[in-house]
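Q&A FORM
Asked by: J.P.
Topic: structure of Acyl-CoA dehydrogenase

PROVIDED:
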Amino acid sequence: MADMTTTAFELSREHEEFRASVREFAAAEIAPHAAQWDRDHHFPIDVVRKMGALGLFGLTSPEEYGGAGEDGDFTSLCVAIEEIGRVDQSMGITLQAAVGLGINPVLTYGTEDQKKQWLPALVAGEELAGFGLTEPGAGSDAGATRTKAVLDGGEWVVDGSKQFITNSGSEITSLVTVTARTGTREDGRPEISTIMVPAGTPGFTAEKAYDKLGWHASDTHPLSFQSCRVPAENLLGERGRGYAQFLATLDDGRVAISALSVGCIQACLDMSVEYAGERQTFGGPIGRKQGVAFQIADLEVMLHASRMLTYRAAALKDAGAPYQEFKQAAAVAKLYTTESAVTATRIATQVFGGYGFMEEYPVARFYRDAKVLEIGEGTSEVQRMLIARGLGLPVE
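REPLIED BY: S.T.
REPLY: Here is the structure written out as tokens.
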């Protein structure tokens, strides 16, 4: 396949028109309420459903399940996440996780019966699904998974716990897909499979929501499974392929998190430019001071670089590029954009000075929300390891 040139991944007119419609929706339905949701730690189900009515959860799904079909693609999803995240990172991650971690595994690995059972409501935004991977002792080291699933007759019996799981305990959560040890391989390594556990199944508990540093309006819970029985046909994909499945799922998710980071950087730039033009000191706006103006110029550079890396990776995904090429592009995008987003919020807070430390200004919320971008979907350290391996280095 030929190298992707700059023009190959510029957004099309249709993508830009779609961006405008999502931006209008975000400005009307999310922006006026984001601060209050953050203060109240409120997960706005009504807005989630409005996002579903707009078609945002179905951008990568076929029409037969209620999705956009040929009218949507992965790039469109990234555009939507960026624009939602530009006004509220909590709603941005809700969309990202709902599609990338909820819908995508079922769409990619599910049987036709599983797809027909679960996808229509998920695609419509009437229901949400979570992906239970991380555990107290197993995050980046997913091979250390301790949750177990044992076949007993025609049922899987699941025991264990998960943590930091998005969209896992809301009123409209219908399903959580969990990774679990289902045996031992010949080489002694654990056999990891993925199993779908419907909400309300006896023995499955979404514990009290976390009191998080940021993403206050996002639904995030620890999960516990105690002799939790689900039908044997709830196995998602091939038995023993759960590890490979979640790796592929995370590759897509890294690009989507990059899009969320781009939205964060754009918000920081917008707020900083406006404030620097209005705030008066020593007889003029602070934006005429090089110490301020140069920092804002750095935001512009970070924004363009982050957006380019993100949409290049998305274009590779949509073009069906070789897996290793896409995987490397996803890791590069995720590393650069998330670290840039954290830096952008620090710069924006500094531009605002004392006001940036006050919760009445959105910049403070973005500052709190940004840090987790460097952690979720693979930490910055993991991305550097993947990039180094992609270069042929024997890094452990």
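FOLLOW-UP: The beta strands are 128-132, 148-152, 155-166, 173-184, 190-198, 204-206, 220-231, 235-236, 280-281, 284-285.
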